[in-house]
């Protein structure tokens, strides 16, 4: 009520209704403002420059009015605003005008078109150059330069980290997976990556994305196994303001919206609840989504890469995975082989992992032939991730610069020692001695050659241990 009254008073006010008076008021605003104001007509001709701006640029009003804006301020963008109708809010601009001592300074500029109905009739620029604003502008410029630098570096780093070239492997089954994945990268179709845990599904997903047309937009990973079912919809599609208690003010974008133009990587897709599968299918079909608590539809353009170590076909058969969604996701299928069928690649992996560690810690650690042989005979249920952990662990335990049996985990050794130790021409007593020697060395190293502790752990008398050390010719280090 009070508001309406105020508006009536305003529109009926004689001073306000008198055009001449109103112009005087606006001229005063321009005159007393600390900020610069520049006004051009729709052709870009200057029709007003206020006192603050004239003084800042050390210009005289009579030399400015009537001239084209770029004759006075060489790199002005105000003329563009009347053509495009766009608005620039608080952008950093470097002045390039005449001989003023303030030439080359960074200022903060807002540019806006003035419209009469649909027609742009002029453009107004507000230029902030108070001391504070100049400082802020200079800092913003420096920060922006830095951000651009890091963005480029990040692109370079991420691009090389996740490229097909940086992936290790030369074996036939791995090369076949790479061949299909490279083809997939060139298309925009959905990709389903299958393979046991630790085989490199996430590595493949990233390589496909960074080799695709979408590489300059984000790839966003959604771990379907890690998000509680009741939060999954809002995680994927976002929520509108006030849609539930605890919702962030202004709502939140979901991962699909964040990945717009890029790739959504649905990891562990087999763990997606059935209700969510239906919602996902709808978004993939319609190419638009609705945030939780909103009926507004938002178009999304994403490529889907999903991954699983479960058997989705079985899940379809027993009704835990939707058949229609399965077909939509499984357009290009890349089967990533387990490590045990690419044993030829083990040496390459070990070399590469050790090279990384050596570079990082400035060392020169390698692996013994026998230890490598053991690694090549193990079945690797945890695949490349397990191999990497074994190398990291062995590296951290090494005393000399060679990884031997002693540093390899017991689980691997127990299953693999015999075939390695069984060399042609050896008798059973020799083989037993070899095996015993390995066990003793491994325990002695673990206990820093403390014989009392080692004998205790092995459940033998100390004197027996000394005898065996002598008989088996084990060297005791200080
Ligand atoms: N070809 C490769 N070259 C180099 N490193 C690889 C390769 N494949 C996998 N790795 C490494 O192996 C580890 C496991 O890979 P990744 O996380 O991609 O496996 P995953 O199949 O997605 O596993 P999970 O199913 O358990 O999520 C990572 O450290 C990754 O860097």
Nearest-integer average pLDDT = 87
Give the uncertain stretches in residue-range form: none
Q: What percent strand?
A: 15-25%
CATH class of the largest domain: Alpha Beta
What helical percentage do the residues reach? 40-55%
| Number of beta strands | 16
Q: What's the CATH topology name of the largest domain? A: Rossmann fold
CATH architecture of the largest domain: 3-Layer(aba) Sandwich
Radius of gyration: 35 Å
Main pleated-sheet profile: 5 strands, antiparallel
Number of individual domains: 3
The CATH superfamily name of the largest domain is: P-loop containing nucleotide triphosphate hydrolases
Strand order of the largest sheet: 2-1-5-4-3
Protein name: PAS domain S-box-containing protein
Pfam families: AAA_lid_14, HTH_8, PAS, Sigma54_activat
Keywords: ATP-binding, DNA-binding, Nucleotide-binding, Transcription, Transcription regulation
Describe the structure.
There is one protein chain. The chain contains 21 helices and 16 strands. The chain has 478 residues and is α/β, with parallel strands linked by helices. The protein has 3 domains: 13-134, PAS domain (Beta-Lactamase, 2-Layer Sandwich); 162-337, P-loop containing nucleotide triphosphate hydrolases (Rossmann fold), CATH 3.40.50.300; 358-471, Helicase, Ruva Protein, domain 3 (Orthogonal Bundle). A 5-stranded antiparallel beta sheet has the order 2-1-5-4-3. The chain has a 5-stranded parallel beta sheet with strand order 7-10-13-6-14. A two-stranded antiparallel sheet has the order 8-9. Strand 11 and strand 12 form a beta hairpin. Helix 15 (346-361) packs across helix 17, helix 16 crosses helix 18 and helix 20 crosses helix 21 (462-471). The longest helix has 31 residues, at 131-161. It is elongated and about 115 Å long. Bound molecules: adenosine-5'-triphosphate. Adenosine-5'-triphosphate binds at residues 167-169, 195, 197-203, 309, 384-385, 388.
């Amino acid at each position: 009520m009070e508001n309406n009254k105020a508006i009536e008073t305003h529109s009926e006010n004689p001073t306000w209704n008198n055009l001449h008076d109103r112009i005087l008021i606006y001229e005063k605003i321009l005159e007393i403002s600390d900020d610069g104001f520049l006004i051009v007509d729709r052709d870009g001709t200057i029709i007003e420059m206020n006192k603050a701006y004239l003084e800042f640029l050390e210009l005289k009003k009579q030399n400015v009015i009537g001239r084209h804006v770029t004759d006075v301020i060489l790199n002005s963008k105000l003329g563009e605003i009347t053509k495009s109708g766009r608005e620039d809010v608080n952008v950093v601009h470097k002045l390039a005008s005449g001989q003023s001592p303030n030439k080359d300074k960074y200022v903060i500029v807002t540019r806006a078109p003035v419209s009469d109905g649909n027609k742009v009739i002029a453009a107004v620029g507000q230029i902030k150059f108070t001391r504070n604003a100049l400082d802020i502008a200079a800092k913003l410029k420096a920060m922006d330069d830095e951000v651009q630098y890091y963005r480029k570096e990040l692109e370079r780093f991420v691009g090389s980290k996740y490229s097909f070239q940086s992936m290790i492997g030369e074996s036939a089954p791995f090369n076949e997976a790479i061949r299909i994945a490279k083809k997939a990268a060139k298309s925009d179709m959905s990709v389903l990556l299958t393979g046991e845990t630790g085989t490199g599904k996430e590595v493949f997903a990233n390589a496909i994305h960074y080799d695709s047309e979408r590489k300059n937009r984000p790839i966003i990973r959604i771990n379907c196994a890690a998000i509680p079912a009741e939060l999954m919809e809002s995680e994927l599609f976002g929520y509108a303001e006030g849609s539930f208690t605890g919702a962030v003010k202004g709502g939140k974008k979901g991962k699909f919206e964040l990945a717009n133009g890029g790739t959504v990587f649905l990891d562990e897709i087999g763990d997606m609840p059935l209700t969510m599968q239906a919602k996902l299918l709808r978004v993939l079909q319609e190419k638009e989504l609705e945030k939780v608590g909103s009926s507004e539809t938002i178009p999304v353009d994403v490529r889907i890469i999903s991954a699983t170590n479960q058997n989705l076909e079985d899940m379809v058969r027993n009704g835990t995975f939707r058949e229609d969604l399965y077909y939509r996701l499984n357009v290009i299928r890349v089967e990533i082989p387990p490590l045990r069928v690419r044993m030829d690649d083990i040496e390459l992996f070990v070399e590469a992992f050790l090279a990384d560690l050596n570079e990082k810690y400035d060392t020169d650690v390698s692996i013994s032939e026998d230890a490598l042989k053991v690694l090549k005979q193990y079945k690797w249920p945890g695949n490349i991730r397990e191999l990497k952990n074994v190398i990291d662990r062995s590296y951290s335990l090494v005393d000399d610069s060679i990884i031997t049996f002693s540093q390899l985990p017991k689980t691997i050794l127990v299953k693999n020692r015999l075939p390695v130790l069984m060399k042609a021409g050896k008798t059973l007593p020799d083989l037993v001695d070899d095996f015993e020697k390995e066990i003793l060395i491994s325990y002695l190293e673990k206990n820093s050659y403390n014989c009392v502790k080692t004998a205790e752990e092995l459940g033998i008398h100390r004197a027996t241990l000394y005898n065996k050390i002598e008989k088996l010719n084990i060297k005791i280090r200080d």
